Amino acid sequence: MTDHTHQQRSKVDIAGADRDKYLVHWRTEIVAIVNELCHIGSPVTAYIDGHEDDFILTTIVAVKLEQNTMLLDFGADAAANRRAMHTERIVCDTTLDGIKIQMSAEAFRPARFEGRDVFAMTMPETLLRLQRREYYRIGTPRFNPLLCIIAPDQLPRGVSGDMVIDDISCGGIAFGLSDAMTGIETGTRFNHCRIPLPEIAEATTNFGGLYSGSRRMSLPESVEVVTDIVVRGMVEITFPNGVKHRHAGCEFINMRERDRSLVQRYVSKLEHERRYRAASR
After folding, report:
1. Which of 132, 182, 255, 275 lies at a 20 to 30 A Cα distance from 98?
2. Closest Cα partner for 100 from 172, 168, 169, 33?
């Protein structure tokens, strides 16, 4: 690490519009993320005054919601620990499920935890969650599964067009193919597919008030998006009993922005539910 007063150090923050679209504002979701980071012991790099060449390595050791505080271990460098408690700003970087998480504090405060000295940090009002992939993909519920409905005239005779979706993102879906669905390979296109997205409106009231005020969505309990899809990849899985299962990964084509936005809200709803369950453990 260089001298703390060096003026040419680059900032670690992401700024501007790119930052705004990745900010998490909902307290329940922030608490869930911080609790999960604590639970798995994810390493945290705490940048002193937001500069990339002056930092300490630490972990979150406890979350004290009644005090609106989280506790972090001291770093190995005593001088850096002192600077962290006498700086204008700390920027904490870590990862969760391969996604960059960043949060800020004015400074660390001294505290005690289980008989040792630790840092105390006020729970952030917002945090940055920077997805490394363009579209975040999430598995769909097994109970009351999500369907992609393909018109029968685009499928072999007698084959149901109700495809059970295994996972979904704003860029596409994946589903299994039955033995009867011969002739479907990479490059196969299906037009005007319908995907009913259930219970999006429930996200406005459940999970500890994740959405409130101007963020409350006004949507029916189930909405339907319509899009073309193209098969971009095929995977064959063999189960222990010898049964083979083909899995098709598909890309959305010519999807309207309105429909893509609805898919994003559905994906966010599933993710909020997962975070809420993690925070409740």
Report:
1. 255
2. 33
